[in-house]
Design brief:
seven-stranded mixed sheet; alpha+beta; 7 strands; binds coenzyme A; Aminopeptidase; about 180 residues
Length: about 180
């Protein structure tokens, strides 16, 4: 099982935050898609979501769920409407996918930062640019879900105006 926490940002008193200028956050270029899938594979290899924590599931296949999802975020507008990528000295170091759920609501759906590039504020920059994109798209609020144990995501997001909204448990039951 796992527990997913939904965080929400209502754009209350919205003033865009800033991040270091050496980080380049930009819209996905189709050439970046294999790199996005690779970062997803690296980022979610040791994840503690409900697929990886089920001992009956192959952990390699559990990781492939995320790389395949990341790839679909890049090519299928039903999965994601916008993908941001981070580049440092021209090298792809992370991605952030966003879906518009309705005229009022957008959702951050999948993100990863290359393991060697963490704790430099790249995820924080994605949240800032993601909020800017959602604000410009005209929605009134943004959702972001993450595992209850993913305190990094929760801390970065709450510092940027998100609050905890609700949470869900997902259980696996094998009927045999
Ligand atoms: C979660 C994840 C996206 C965070 O990416 P990141 O780029 O390392 O995140 P940030 O650098 O913005 O913030 C991470 C931490 O570094 C700190 N930090 C930011 N800039 C920093 C800097 N220049 N120096 C030192 N620390 C810094 C942040 O305050 C934060 O600290 P905290 O964990 O104590 O709150 C990344 O660890 C990852 O890809 N994990 C696996 C996949 C995943 O969990 N995806 C999100 C699913 S919703």
């Amino acid at each position: 099982m796992d527990t997913l926490v939904y965080l929400r940002n209502d754009f209350e008193d919205y003033i865009p935050a800033t991040y270091p200028s050496e980080l380049s956050i930009q819209a996905l270029d189709p050439e970046d898609i294999p790199g996005v899938a690779k970062i997803a594979k690296e980022s979610f290899a040791a994840y503690k979501g409900h697929y990886h924590t089920d001992p009956r599931l192959d952990p390699v296949k559990a990781t492939e769920v995320y790389s395949s999802w990341a790839e679909r975020c890049c090519v299928d507008p039903a999965v994601a409407n916008h993908v941001l990528v981070a580049k440092l000295d021209g090298k792809l170091v992370g991605f952030r996918a966003i879906r518009v759920n309705s005229s009022d609501e957008a959702e951050f759906i999948l993100a990863g930062v290359a393991p060697g590039m963490r704790r430099r504020g790249i995820y924080r920059a994605f949240v800032i640019e993601g909020l800017n994109w959602c604000k410009a798209a005209g929605v009134t609020h943004v959702l972001n879900s993450t595992l209850l144990i993913n305190t990094t995501v929760q801390k970065v997001c709450t510092k940027l105006g998100f609050y905890a909204l609700e949470s869900y448990h997902t259980f696996h039951k094998w009927f045999d």
